[in-house]
Write a structure and sequence with these properties.
It comes from Gracilibacillus halophilus YIM-C55.5. The protein is mainly alpha-helical. 74% of the residues lie in helices and 6% in strands. The protein binds manganese (II) ion.
Length: 140
């Protein structure tokens, strides 16, 4: 099982490869707001644990195991953003809040939150009803 820090790295590497086609140490460092030397160290650890293959000066590629986990981590992040948005959390809080909670929920909870998001997406009246409850509570 990857630690929360390892999860952040795998998630960002997966995202970078998905959007740019590659993931450089400098880009990972920028995305995670850490020093390039920390990235190099972590990337070497992820290589040892078989999440990716890293060749200095040649870049890195995710292994099948790294890709599978990366995909789930990106899905989890996006799902939690959707969830917070649906329940009415202000946009400016969403990213930071997701970063704070994403590593601390079981996949069981993630899947059930997935059901709830689905429930609200299926019928926009459900979102409106929730909004009405929120407005009522805010006024009282
Ligand atoms: Mn994240």
């Amino acid at each position: 099982m990857p630690t929360p820090t390892m999860e952040d790295y795998i998630e960002q590497i997966y995202l970078l490869i998905e959007t740019k086609g590659y993931a450089r140490v400098s880009a990972i460092a920028e995305a995670l707001q850490v020093k390039p030397s920390s990235v190099t160290k972590m990337v070497q650890k992820l290589d040892r644990d078989d999440y990716l293959n890293y060749e200095k000066y040649q870049g890195l590629i995710l292994t099948a195991k790294g890709k599978k986990i990366g995909k789930r981590l990106v899905y989890r992040h996006e799902l939690l953003e959707q969830f917070l948005h649906i329940i009415g959390v202000d946009d400016e809080n969403i990213y930071r809040d997701v970063e704070g909670i994403e590593h601390h929920l079981s996949w069981n909870s993630i899947d059930r939150i997935g059901d709830l998001v689905q429930y609200f997406e299926e019928d926009s009246d459900r979102q409106k009803a929730l909004e009405q409850t929120r407005n009522k509570l805010e006024k009282s």
